[in-house]
C-alpha cells in the first residue's frame, strides 16, 4: 500500500474548506497522458491554484495503476520545479463503479475516490457507498458518491 501523502498529494477536505472560505472553485481535469498532465500542472503552478487530477476507470486501465502513481508523484515534483512551493494536488478516481476499484485506487495512492452506484437500486448503492467510505476513511482518503441520477443529464457510458 502507498499513502497519497508519501506522493505529496492532498485530499479534498482541506482543499474544499479553503475554497469555500475564499469563495473560489477548484478545477477537476480528467487526463489520459503525460502531455495533458504537464499542461494541467503548468497552469496550476503558474496560478498557484489547487487542482484535482481525475482518472476514469478506462484511463486507469490504459495508463496502468503503477505508472499513474508515479505520474502523480512526478506532477507534484514538477509543480515544485515550477516554483509552487506547496502544491495542492489531489488524485481522484472519477466514477468508480465497484468497491474493488475504489479500494485499489486507495491502495495505490489516490487521495480521493468517487463511488458511482447510481445504476444499482438505492439501498444497494447506499451499502456500497458505506463500504467504500469505511475503507477509504481509514487512510484519510476523501470519498464522493453518486447516490441518485440526474434525469436527462446522466451519461450513458462509463469510462
Quick rundown:
This protein has 159 residues and is α/β, with parallel strands linked by helices. The chain has six helices and five strands.
Characterise the protein shown here.
There is one protein chain. By secondary structure, the chain is an alpha/beta fold. The protein has a five-stranded parallel sheet with strand order 1-2-3-4-5. Helix 5 runs parallel beside helix 6. The mean pLDDT is 92. The chain is 47% helix and 17% strand.
Q: What separation lies between the terminal Cα atoms?
A: 25 Å
Strand order of the largest sheet: 1-2-3-4-5
- Order of secondary-structure elements: HEHEHHEHEHE
Low-confidence stretches: none
The dominant shape is globular
CATH-assigned homologous superfamily: Aldolase class I
User: What is the residue-averaged pLDDT?
Assistant: 92
Name of the CATH class: Alpha Beta
Q: Give the number of helices.
A: 6
Tell me about the biggest sheet?
Answer: 5 strands, parallel
Nearest-angstrom radius of gyration?
15 Å
Work out the strand percent: 15-25%
Class per helix and strand makeup: alpha/beta
Number of domains: 1
Helix content: 40-55%
The CATH architecture assignment turns out to be Alpha-Beta Barrel
The name of the CATH topology is TIM Barrel
Feature tags:
5 strands; 6 helices; TIM Barrel; 5-stranded parallel β-sheet; 159 residues
Secondary structure: elements and pairs:
Elements: H1 12-22, E1 28-30, H2 34-47, E2 51-56, H3 57-63, H4 65-81, E3 89-96, H5 99-107, E4 112-116, H6 122-137, E5 142-146
Parallel strand pairs: 1-2, 2-3, 3-4, 4-5
Helix pairs in contact: 2-4, 5-6
